[in-house]
Amino acid sequence: MTIHDDPYAGTTETPEGPVFNVTGQDWDSIDVEGIEGDHLVVNMGPQHPSTHGVLRLILEIDGEQILGARAGIGYLHTGIEKNMEYRTWTQGVTFCTRMDYVAPFSNEAVYVAAVEKLLGITDDVPERAQIIRVMMLELNRVSSHLVAIATGGMELGALTVMTCGFRDREIILKLFETITGLRMNHAYFRPGGVALDLPEGALDELRDGVALLRKRLPEYAALCNANPIFMGRLKGVGHLDLAGCLALGVTGPPLRATGYDWDLRKKRPYFGYETYDFEVVTRDEPDAYGRFRIRLDEMAESLKIVEQCIERLAATEGQPVMVADRKIAWPSQLSVGADGQGNSPEHIRHIMGESMEALIHHFKLVTEGFRVPAGQVYTEIESPKGVIGCHAVSDGGTRPFRAHFRDPSFVNLQSVSAMCEGGMLSDVIVAVASVDPVMGGVDR
Amino acid sequence: MSDDTKPTGADPTPTDADRTQDPSHETQNELERSEAHDLEIVEVREGSFGVHGTGDTTGFGGLRRPVIMPGAATPPFGGWYDDVAQRLAGGDGLTDAIEKVVIDRGEITFFIRRERLAATARHLRDDPQLRFEFCASVSGVHFPHETGRELHVVYELTSMTHNRHIRLEVVAPDADPHIPSVVPTYPTADWHEREVWDMFGVIFDGHPALTRILMPDDWPGHPQRKDYPLGGIPVEFKGGTIAPPDDRRSYS
User: Fold this and answer.
1) Contact yes or no for A406 and B167 at CB 8 A
2) Does this UniProt record's set of keywords contain Translocase (chain A) (predicted)?
């Protein structure tokens, strides 16, 4: 096909000179006479295997050099925030867990924290529920970092890193499935606690899983840390210093790679994080390599927290995992059946056979939901990718009047331009991977 | 929820009579629970399920539920809130910047007059005793019943230096949806402001490139406004339709 057969191709006259639009035909068929240099604008994505989903990068390149980089987003916009305004406060968890699908528990956690703050029940959430939440969040931090390292490695051509990363993530997803019934999109955290207590035997599986991860995590360090190709591709690439991070709102591993120990788990603790023993990892290498090493070391710290959670869970066996207030707590506690999902037979017997009032209560709470006093709150927690925040507004009704999420991927992605410009084309992929954006979270 | 919203008469301002005459359960709850010094009735809803007139067979037609937001606090606010409030008002030409202060659920909100927003943000970032160097989030909220104050834009600012968090809230009427941009002070607000423009139609004056960010460039309307329905968008498949899910009844 020549340039003249294609309705999207052709020449446009602009004040800066002629612009040639090409859509994939052979380079020789393009009439480029009278053009000086190789000044090209290239769309990388939105369907490109190295852009972590449907990210579109608009690159202005001169040969292999990046003159300008802009990110185009919105290809995965699903209207989660709008949808949440039409569902009850409890149902909102089901929506927001789908935002950053690699770290679903962070989305759920920040949302339920916001609802609990609006209700004024933050301190009433039972201890066991908080321990379970912390454990799930930290396991999720490990699995999210494993995806970051695995996909980042794959984009460099390090396929072994990819297969190892997904192999080890599988251990965690199995644990998630044991506890919540689902590998992702859990909707497990609920306003007031968690949906159900740990099933029988879960603690033993957790201990085995953590032991296996402890054994395998050093493999990444052995494979990558001093690997000359790996270092050659990552060191000095995607540089962003502390001033740049703060101006652009970048948080998470890229911020801690500048040497600043901003971690909300320590700075503004939530869910009882102040009672756990762990270190915040920082490095003085604000580049892709520093971010990789931060993620690696953070995984070890997270496993330390998970081990403490397992001990505490063993000590709090049988304690409640949902607030005592029956006007807020979900009326039934589901159980896991033989097929991996289950009802609550005792509760059904109670409401269907024993108590009319219990049935009415169940019906009202499940269909109408609880009312939340009017007002607005903003909560934030430390997700694997940075600070995730939730701005929730209530008008006193049973549904959110407005729920807005400050997703760390959305904000951190803005810094890709600053990281790439002036560098080489191949470094764009490394810079994007070092930010670890998940488009589900960016576009919501 | 827009369909539940009914005009509440010519005078939406709260009166003392409203407060005392409303014995509803929810109001009592709110009065007990909120730490706010004063409460502000911003809307009164009637009936249930958003059904009005002869269609209402629920028996709840006489129900009245006021929407009560936390109202303005009066100084002293307590703790570091006073330091920040005084220091903020002490900036160059910022004596009248604060419209009101709301303290609720352990969070402080400064309502800033919109013409003072840009200077306030710069002062909050640069004053060494304030040093709110990190703009975490910018979010919009649409209150269709607040005549003349429909569009709210909410800025979440964190001072990492002092480990403090405040919220700025700026309002603009639907008829004149202009708010100064804070991008010159907080470059991170670039995408946030584009999102608020995209979703609510707030125009940020001085933004370097205020274009849609999540919706397609040629999209009509601003989807997260309350007068924009959920669903019902034509789809590009033959015979495919999406029924508007917000036709379901809701507890008003």
Assistant:
1) no
2) yes
